[in-house]
Automatic annotation (TrEMBL):
Domain Helicase C-terminal: 220-364
Protein's name in the database: DNA helicase RecQ
GO MF entries: 3'-5' DNA helicase activity; ATP binding; DNA binding; four-way junction helicase activity; hydrolase activity; metal ion binding
CDD domains: DEXHc_RecQ (cd17920), SF2_C_RecQ (cd18794)
Length: 518
């Protein structure tokens, strides 16, 4: 019989004929004992990148994964394919855990899944040290970076573990969500050289991104769910209270709905999760506590009822739609006021000042996403450092309203920002342009500025949203975290000089919502 190869294992153990993009390269590197970072979209097939090498090496592959809920399923699936694997996490009692480690030591398993929290236990590293570990796979590797949106202190242990394990395992890190900065951070902490980054891109061509503004959210949601009442989807809320409220509202309207948040008893949460996974309930209303490790392929829509805290979280949560590759929708219901709750979360967090400023900056990007006139998919990919063409299917690409030349209005805003010498933020710029007569305007004598009251015929909220549009379009630049100041970019300066034009689709006029029967 011929020796096993990655290709033969793919076919015989997993039943697939061809590798997906990136898989073959990743496996080859790992088998050459070269540390590797795999960046692939959700559903791209990251698991095989370490499962196949695990089967081709003599020693053990340790998989660190925060997805405790998923571990048992993954291990069961491997066992069903005749692959000896096991897991150790908080759901396994200590005696059983010892027993499994013991078996691992005797070479009974090819893969051992562990929860990152284990790594912080003093004895655990020593126990691992007694095993012959050939490969250390770090799933959800962005959790190692403080710049990421899901930082886990226990992941920092991995740096030491990767260095100190006596068997010097090869390291493979995997993630579906990493900005350039986060990817660099992962590489540094796990000794993965840039040449070892395998990036197949983040694009999810089957997702249609939409931003819905200026609508009554409850009415929109009810309309949408009634129009799509045979489909499964997730509605994300910013708070537990909002989950409870929307759950009652939807339930009252006869929607097949379940709820999930961290404030519910565990048994109830688990029951609801199962109801959703097995399609006994079609819609899940939840906080972001729901979804990590949920592998439901037929989620047709993910709606965010409030704006999330950053674009990475948004993309990851929205990305739970359409894992099966079929067309699916990712909808953000946007209201500027919702940013307040996010700021509150940041203020209340126990990170240091640097951390908070970084969180504020990320929130700004999220706000720009909601206000950009550019392709939404492209906006997201650009944020992750990937160039792409307009997707042709997001709400901006499909926006057929005529673009209006708004160069003159843009010039008013830009010159106002110039007059304020980059020392003030959106609130002050809005007040000056609107000609507000408040304490701070008087204090700074801004009523004397030539730009004072230049846009007095507009509502303040529209001026503010126009400023967001200009920021999202790269004409203005917001600097600093909590109270960002506005400055004019190179592109903005071109507009001021009359060298570039600005156009905008007409402001959204609220579509009368389809009548909802009570
Ligand atoms: P990820 O972890 O990147 O989100 P998974 O590893 O869970 O993705 O894989 C997603 C799905 O794609 C799984 O059902 C997996 O069996 C399937 N898959 C992975 N690789 C291939 C392949 N080469 N050919 C066909 N299907 C594959
Ligand atoms: Zn688009």
């Amino acid at each position: 019989m011929a020796a096993a190869t990655p290709q033969s294992i793919l076919k015989e153990k997993f039943g697939y004929d061809d590798f997906r993009p990136g898989q073959g390269r990743a496996i080859k590197r790992v088998l050459n004992h070269e540390n590797t970072l795999v960046i692939m979209p959700t559903g791209g097939g990251k698991s095989l990148c370490y499962q196949i090498p695990a089967l081709l090496q003599d020693g053990l592959t340790v998989v660190v994964s925060p997805l405790i809920a998923l571990m048992k399923d993954q291990v069961d699936a491997l066992n069903a394919n005749g692959i000896p694997a096991t897991y150790i996490n908080s759901t396994v009692d200590p005696r059983e855990a010892d027993y499994r480690l013991d078996l691992a030591g005797r070479g009974e398993y090819k893969l051992l899944y562990v929860a990152p929290e284990r790594l912080e236990l003093s004895g655990f590293l020593q126990e691992l040290g007694g095993l012959r570990i050939d490969l250390l796979a770090v799933d959800e590797a962005h959790c190692i970076s403080q710049w990421g949106h899901a930082f886990r202190p226990s992941y920092l242990e991995l740096t030491r573990i990767a260095q100190e394990l006596p068997s010097h395992p090869t390291v493979i890190a995997l993630t579906a969500t990493a900005t350039t900065r986060v990817a660099e951070d992962i590489g540094q902490r796990l000794s993965i050289p840039p040449a070892g980054f395998i990036n197949t891109g983040f694009a999810r061509p089957n997702l249609s991104f939409q931003v819905v503004k200026g609508q009554d959210k409850d009415a929109y949601l009810l309309d949408y769910l009634k129009l799509n009442k045979d489909q499964s989807g997730i509605v994300y809320c910013a708070t537990r209270k909002e989950v409870e409220r929307l759950y009652l509202l939807l339930d009252r309207h006869g929607i097949s709905v379940a709820k999930y948040h961290a404030g519910m008893p565990e048994t109830e949460r688990n029951d609801n999760q199962e109801d959703f996974l097995f399609d006994r309930k079609l819609v899940m209303v939840a906080t972001n506590a729901f979804g990590m490790g949920i592998d439901k392929s037929n989620v047709r829509f993910v709606i965010h009822a409030q704006v999330p805290g950053d674009l990475e979280s948004y993309y990851q949560e929205a990305g739970r739609a359409g894992r099966d590759g079929l067309d699916s929708e990712a909808i953000l219901l946007y209201a500027p006021n919702d940013l307040g709750i996010r700021r509150f979360f940041i203020d209340q967090s126990d990170g240091d000042e640097d951390y908070k400023q970084n969180e504020y900056r990320k929130l700004q990007v999220m706000n720009q996403y909601a206000n950009t006139g550019d392709c939404l998919q492209q906006f997201i990919l650009r944020y992750f450092g990937q160039a792409s063409e307009p997707c042709g299917r997001c709400s901006n690409c499909l926006d057929t309203r005529e673009a209006v030349d708004v160069t003159e209005s843009a010039q008013k805003v830009l010159s106002c920002v110039v007059r304020l010498h980059g020392r003030f933020g959106k609130g002050m710029v809005t007040d000056v342009l609107a000609g507000s007569n408040n304490q701070r305007i008087r204090q700074f004598g801004f009523a004397e500025l030539s730009t004072y009251g230049l846009m007095a015929s507009m509502r303040k909220k529209d001026i503010a949203s126009f400023i967001d549009f200009l920021t999202a379009g790269g004409y203005l630049e917001a600097q600093g975290g909590q109270y960002p100041t506005l400055g004019v970019t190179q592109l903005g300066a071109d507009v001021l000089r009359g060298g570039a034009k600005v156009s905008r689709k007409q402001a959204v006029k609220a579509r009368a919502s389809v009548a909802v029967d009570d």
